[in-house]
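Predict the assembly for these three chains.
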Amino acid sequence: MPELPEVETIKQSLAPYVLGQRIREVTLYQPRVVARPGPEDFCRLQAGATVRSLARRGKYLLFYLEEERVLVVHLRLTGRLVWQASPGPLSKHTHVVWHLDNGFLLYEDLRRFGRLWLVRETELVEVAGLAALGPEPLGEGLGGSWAAAFWRRDRPLKSLLLDQRFVAGIGNIYADEILHRAGLHPLRRAATLSKGEAEALAEAIRNVLTEAIEHRGTSIRDYVDGQGASGQHQDFLQVHGRAGKACYRCGTPVVRIKLGGRGTYFCPGCQQ
DNA sequence: CCGAACCTGTGT
DNA sequence: ACACAGGTTCGG
């Protein structure tokens, strides 16, 4: 479900409801979603702790608690984190409930691919994938030395954008949208980019992700923010999910192919 | 590199 | 019945 703009929106929409709140109790309904520690420790070690701060790294959401403990959440495809004033009737896909002083934080996940970790700050490197993440695309990390890595990569551009070690936070929707914005074909080999094309790609990454955050994320099917609200960026998609429809820029019908097992949309008219 | 696996649901 | 879905990891 969520890529960087969605996780960032969840973080921002959750912050006013969870920051400074004390966790009275944690109820775990589906132990499989907790990667570590064991189910009893996961609940016991959070009880009584206060949420100090929130952070995002790539598609990971981090809740910094007291005693240097960090709750790390990766929502994968269908995970949701939603705050509610009252618990309401729980759905069959609600796997964790945090009982806060002011209400309830729910973790729901239809496909149960998402994972949660509770670790000490010093153990963050042990969270799968977290330590290997590439630079934050909205930080200062997409400069010249980053772009220079293009020339050494004989891979299709889209698979490079989806590689979280190369740049953190981009997923299937935004990879398609970024390449369309930059006018680059998803199968184009990274090593063949000119300096100008590499700079255009870095700028497209920043612009597309920034606009998606301004639209509070893309809600195609499952995504909602921390208050259960849908995003708006689905109304601004240029190619993703638009196979057979005219490109807004040049009128050429958008094409769908498979690349690395993922549905990939592009405009053959304006992406080379 | 590719497909399979992890899961459940929706759409054709 | 079959394809497909905002992700990642594992095995061949």
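The radius of gyration of chain A is 20 Å. The longest strand of chain A covers residues 94-100.
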